[in-house]
Structure formats: structure tokens, C-alpha cells
Design a protein that fits this description.
The structure holds two protein chains of two kinds. Chain A is an all-alpha fold. In chain A, 70% of the residues lie in helices and 0% in strands. Chain A has a domain of 224 residues. In chain A, α12 crosses α13 and α12 runs parallel beside α15. Chain B is globular and about 55 Å long. Classes of the chains: A mainly alpha, B alpha/beta.
Amino acid sequence: MVLPLPLTRSKPTAESPVEFMARSHRLRWYELLPWVVAAGAFLVYPSYLALGAQVMIMVLFALSLDLIMGYAGIVTLGHAAFFGVGAYTAGLLAVHGWGEPISALFVSAAVAGVVGAISGYIVLRTTGLTLLMLTLAVVSMLNEAANKAGSITGGADGLQGITLQPLLGLFRFDLYGRVAYIYCALVLFAVWLLVRLLVHSPFGRSLTGVRENLVRMHAIGAPVHRRMVTAYAIGAALAGIAGALQAQTTQFVALNVMSFDLSGAVLIMLILGGVGRLYGAFLGAPLYMVAQDMLSRLDPVYWFFWIGLLLVMVVMFARGGVLGVGDVIWHRLKK
Amino acid sequence: MTSLLETRQLSKSFGALVVTSDVDFRLETGARHALIGPNGAGKTTLINLITGRLQPSRGNILIAGEDVTSTSQAARVKRGLGRTFQINMLFRELTVLENVVMTVSEHRGRAGDMFRYAFSRRDIVAEAYELLERLRLGEDALRKVREIAYGRQRLVEIAIALALKPKVLLLDEPAAGVPSAESQLILDVMAELPPDIAVLIIEHDMDLVMRFAQRITVLVQGAVLTEGTPAEVMADPRVREVYLGEHHHG
């Protein structure tokens, strides 16, 4: 695998494996590409910045899922639960006078993380189909709770009246979405740095171990359940940040932020981009959103059919997603 | 003297099927002990009970005198229990070095670290690499496990178990399925195991058992048939009858 970091060496060299491994986490040039694209898009497409911010929020959301599913191997249909918790937390804070956006992000992350830790502690005692159903149950229960608590959340009408203070007390959120775009880009950058560090840390490697061989992880004395719950809670907190960004940048929270549909959509985004590769989210989310935009214009009624067909094609012919196809091409070129 | 590993009346049943029956067993420091028996005798089940993969129906397991019967697998590993598997249980998509680095990190209690890169800990990577070199796996260190020969994968199993610095090492058919040319390498590695650890080996290759073990326990239908030195066990007519398939007359 080329991305994200090469840890194998096909040809022997004088360098000892210890030194080779020690520098394996160095930043590669291609890891900067998403940020070059984000900066370029800001300059080239000034009228699409609001859409750009939404794309970055979905990238962040998919990245949080990649930590859980791609690295720890926990398949979930309920990841939108944490996106929704983050969105409602940020929205309710703003509605009740806490309009400072950055601190609200931290609070949203903490609340979503706690919900993730509690639900993860319970659902991660199961595996396979039972786990899938339980994660689905969590998102459905929270969705219904938000619906019933209409006096607090706005219910089916959505949460309105979100007012934010200027970012850092200086930059007011503008109609063109410039501040929102930069805000989302900076938050995504910080989260990417964190996740990159996490997945290459001993903790992250042990998550890969859990995904690769659970029996072996038990046999080397790893506290498997605790590691999985920790990863689940961190992924939930990051999804909460994505949800909070959504609430802050759109100044509205609809019930569908906490839905099975959104859980499914983010799963499709990640599969399209490539699971367990850190950068699958950066490709899958924009690809999904562009495809959704184009297909819904071409075929307003049955556009989701085409998304489904795209997913079937990827699963059957490009199992590693876009990055997987890139890998195959890269290896063929090298030969 | 306190044994490094002891089982007391260890039993396991699956419904009406008794797979382990009142097994009393001891391993002392430096022991080289083999567990033999025909297929289905319950050898691997016994290993799984000792390591905590299975919970016994009755009886106790003690490591260095401490009762660990109700503790988790992880807790038993921390008390010094290491094992290999009959069928490879490796991280096949990771490199050989990564497999061992992950184990060393776990043993040192560093595997939960989140805020530094895994391979920036040169001391951990160096320890893992030294172990691989000792086991003649140095040249495979940066190759993915699935890319190396099966016999060498068996050595990676042993490397992972040794990376835990076990007091008691359980080797479940370490040479199973290995071509004879490579099984000598496994025997060499086993001969060089630290002298202070107790080793229990399950093996069908009697030649290997005879060369390695100082004592042998014979397990039949989940119960201990006999125990003794290799010469004593081989001279026992019940063993020849039950294990080697020879009928004893007289």
C-alpha cells in the first residue's frame, strides 16, 4: 500500500530497519495535496465557498468514521448519532447565549465523546450483525428523542435562532461563506493532524491489530474492549465537531443530522474514497457530494439509484475505493 | 517450591461432552515439557483453558502460585504467560517487524500511547529487531507477514510469544505443516529458548518431542494417562496402545 505511509521495503539497503521505521512517519508531499486544493478552491471558486465548507464538514465526518471503521474495524450504521449530538449541542449552546464558536466546538466534542463512550461500552461487547443493529438502534433512539423533545430541539421543524459571535471576536460569519470556509478548513486541518498522529501512534497501531486479528491481540495481553471503546469515543467526539461545524455554519439543525440516512451516506463516502487509509475521506466526501449534486440535477427523482449503482461498481470492481484504484495503477507503473 | 504453572482438577465440558477431565499438571522453572496425545485428546483445549481463551467448568489455574482462574487473557499475559497458535494468528498485512513491535509495546505498557509516533521509540523497535535477528528473521523484518514462507511465519509466532518475555511459554504445534528443511530451524530456535522459562509444547512430531522434552504428559480423552521422562513414557504399554496405535499383548 502506498498511502498513507510505506512501512515495507522491497529492496535491501544499508539503512537499518530501526532507522527506516523511525523516519516512516515523516510527512509526504502528497499528504499536503488536500490543503493545496482547499486553498486553490478558496481563490478560484469564491461563489462556492458555502458548498466548500459543507464538503469539508463531510470530510471531517468521514475521517472520524475512518478512525472507527477503517482502523479499529468497527462497522457501524449509527455514526450520525454523534454528528447529531454535536450539532444539537452547538446549536442549543448558541440559542441559549453561548455564541462563542470555538469553545462550543470543544463542548460539542466532549458531549458527543461521552455519548460515544457510554454507547460504545455497551454495543462493543457484541460483534457482527448484532453490533450493526445496535448502532442502528442508537441513532434511531436519539433521533426519536430529539423529535419528541420538540420544545428543546425544535423537533421536526428544526432548531432555529442560532446566533454566533464573530470568530476570535474579530471575524463575523459573512453571507459569502468566506469565514465559514476558512474556519472549517482550519478545524479540519487540526483534526487531520490529530488523527494522523493517532493512527500512527502505538494506540493507532494497536487498533489496526484489533482489526487484523482479534485473537492475537488478546494473546499479547491487549485490553481489546477498552481500546475499542476509546477509539469509538474519539471517533464520536470528532463526529461531534463535524456536527457542531454544520450547526454553526448553517445556523440551523434539522432532525436528519441524526439519521440512518446520514449514517449510510457517510459510510458510502468512505467506501468510495477508500477505507482505513486516512485520505479516503478526503476523496470520498467530495466525490459523493459532487455526484449527488450532478445526479440530482440530471435525474431529480431517481438520483439515489445512480449513487447506489456507483457503490455497487466500487464494491465489485474497486474494493479499495478511489485510493485502491490509485494503488493498483501506481504498482503497475512501478513494474 | 512454587510451580510457574499449575492446574488443579481442571475440567471443561460442552454440555454432556467432557473435553478436559480433572487435569493436574505442574511446570517448574526451566521445564521442557511436552503434551502429547491422539487427535481430539483435548490438548489445544487445555492450552486455551490455561491462557483464558476458554473458561473452565471446574478446577483452578495458578501462575507462580497465584490463582488466575477468573482473570482475563490480558491479565494472564501480564503475569508471564505467552503462547503460539496451532494455526498462525499473525497480523498478516503488517510487516514482521511491526508484528513484534506491537507486542513489545504492549508488554512495556506503551501500546496505549496516543501522542507520539509508534516507530519513533527506537528502543522498542530495536528490541523487536534484535529478537528477530536472534530468530534468524532479520532479513524478513520489513516484509509483510503474508509474503514470507510458512515456516518463517511459524517463527514469527514464536517471536511474538518471546517478545512478551514470558515465564511460561506454550507452543501449540510449532512445526505443524512446516517442511522438514525448515523444521530444523524451528528446533534450533527452540533449543536456544531462555533456560529460565518453562516451556510446554504440543507436538505430533515425536522426533521433535524426543529431542526437546525432558518430561512428557500423555493426554487421552481429556484426562492425563501418564507422565514421566521420554523413556518412561515410551516404555509405557498404555501409551503405545493408545497413542501409537500398537496393541499391547501381555
